[in-house]
Amino acid sequence: MKPIVPAIIASFAFALPVSAQDIEKGEKEFKRCRACHAIASEDETFVKGGKTGPNLYGIIGRTAGSVEGFKYSPELVELGGGGLVWDETNLLEYIADPNTFIGGRSKMTKQKVKNGPDLAAFLATFSEGASSDPGEAAEETAD
Ligand code: HEC
């Protein structure tokens, strides 16, 4: 295990602008996702999870459908090929209704989340240099 990685993540979390987002809440919310998704870098597993869905390490800022060896639905791969990169806004749109988002039959079912922006902020802590502006995401997804 390389101790430097958590150090970067910790400092990144603290460097976030003061915002309504609560990363701890987001971490709890991720329990809904763990059945199918792990969060693991090459040398460290941050959240153990199932393998039904792709690894979500670095998902914010990552091209859609780009985990090598994972069998995505073709529509998602196409969106990635067309330049779709996950951010804290489109990720929440996606999980709320994957079929509509990709315009096809997704391998992921709709996920109801209570604290979407917190979840997105939590996921962003696993992305180096993600453009983290959770405030903006919160505005756009607020009902
Ligand atoms: C029942 C299993 C399951 C659960 C629960 C689940 N997912 Fe997924 N997820 C998948 C599968 C399967 C895919 C691949 C979808 C496809 O290929 O169409 C996916 C894809 C994704 C992607 C796109 C990944 C990429 O590499 O482009 C994101 C983002 C994502 N899930 C986030 C979440 C979040 C956040 C949660 C919790 C709120 C969640 N998922 C819960 C199965 C699941």
TrEMBL record:
Q: Which domain of life is it from?
A: Bacteria
What are the UniProt keywords, alphabetically? Electron transport, Heme, Iron, Metal-binding, Signal, Transport
Cytochrome c domain residues: 21-127
Kindly indicate where the leader peptide sits in this chain.
1-20
Q: Which InterPro entries match?
A: Cyt_c-like_dom (IPR009056), Cyt_c-like_dom_sf (IPR036909), Cyt_c_1A/1B (IPR002327)
Q: Which Gene Ontology molecular-function terms are recorded?
A: electron transfer activity; heme binding; metal ion binding
Record-given protein name: Cytochrome c-550
The organism named in the record is: Roseovarius albus
